[in-house]
Each structure stands twice: as structure tokens, then as C-alpha cells.
Design a protein that fits this description.
Layout lengths: L1 E6 L6 H12 L6 E8 L9 H8 L7 E8 L6 H8 L5 H12 L4 E5 L7 E3 L2 E2 H8 L2 E6 L5 H14 L4 E9 L5 H12 L4 E6 L3 H6 L4 H4 L10 H16 L4
Amino acid sequence: MILFVTANDTNMGKTFVTALLIDCLIQKYDKIAVVKPIESGLRSINKSDLMFIRNINKKNLNKIDFFNFYSFEEPLAPLTAAILTKTNIKKNKIIDNIYKLSNFYDIVVVEGVGGLRVPIGKNFEVIDLIKELKAKTILVVSPSLGTINHTLLSVEALRRRKIRLEGIVINNYPKKPNISELYNPIIFKENKIKILGVIPTLTISDSNKLRYSSKKFFAPSLNGEFESKKFLLSCRYQFDKISVKFG
């Protein structure tokens, strides 16, 4: 199975979500391939996205292998970085390599770069890669104001291309959500978007302490214990309680 982790924008915390997700999935699968096909802004291998995921999952490295096909120093869209460095990003190389990995691993988790419409090559975007891979897709989103527009546009793009969207993961959810952050998940539900997980605001040190709690962040379909229905009921209750003040 190929599972693609993408986002509705850049800097949504895809790598952080992927790291915790791997910690959750490793309790179900014996062998996982983690793929970051392209990474931009890589000045040091020790600060790569794959290294971050590796560090979070130190105790299970015997079950995880990591793969990267292209990397660039400048924090730019892959197409732009490739033009500057005169690199030819071969989409068939990426697709073929990931398909080959799927034959040897229980699950291949692919982390994208930026959002869905980020160009990888001319006339080839992240969303096209997902389509070519026929991957199940998870969309990482923020909880804050503006996320409705970004999320609905992203979901619409995926649905139009008949890409299988498993659902969204809300990252960086505050301990004390404001009225917008309480109602946004309800709007997602009304638009038939499944919430597969909610990850609270965490620091890197928190993530090291809370790895054992990764199951709490994700739904049963991702080998977790997160209850979407319970979360939404809580959002509704808190929203109604706050909205009385506006009446």
C-alpha cells in the first residue's frame, strides 16, 4: 500500500505529522518504507526531513528504511530549484522507484513537498504524482482562520482528479481553541471530509516525550485511538457555550 502525506499549504507540519504517524503505524506493520522523493531547503543531511522522522522513531529503526531521490539546498519549489541547479527531475524515476518499494514493504509512506499544486517539473505537480501512484492520501491542515478556504480547494482538486482522499489530519491544534478553531472541524464534517486525527500543539521535546501517545492522535484506520465523533461533539459543545456570548 502507498500512503501519501500532503498538505493544503507549505509549513503545515507534514514532516512532524509523518513522524508521529510512522510511530503509530509501526505497531501494525513489520516493515515500512518512508520516502521523501524531493526535498528543498536541505543545507545539512542532519537537518533533513527524513532525519527528523528517523530521530522520532529511533526505537524502531530495524523496521524502517528511508529513501530520497532528489534534494536541493535552496528552499524553493522543486521545479525552480531544478532549473537553478540544472537538474533534470525525472518523474518516471520517482514513480518507478516508489512502485518497486511497494513490492518489498508492507506500506510505503510518501511525504510530499509543499502543497498539492507545487510544480515538480513542467506540467507535473505534486497532485499529479499522487494520481500516478494511485496512492491513498492524507491531507495535513491547520486549525486556524483561513484553513477552510485552503482545505476545501485542496479537497476539491483531489476529488476532481478522483484521487482517494482518506481524510485530513488537523495539526497544531491549540489547548484553548478560539471560536473559529472550534467551528472549522464542524464545517469539514459538513463537507463530508473525514477527520483522521488531531495533533495538539507540541514542541520537538514534547514529541520525544509523547511518542508513546501517538495512537491518541490518529483514527483506528491509521492504527490509532482517536475518536472523530467525540472530538466533533466537544467542538460543538464548546462552540455553543461561547456563541451564547455573541447572542
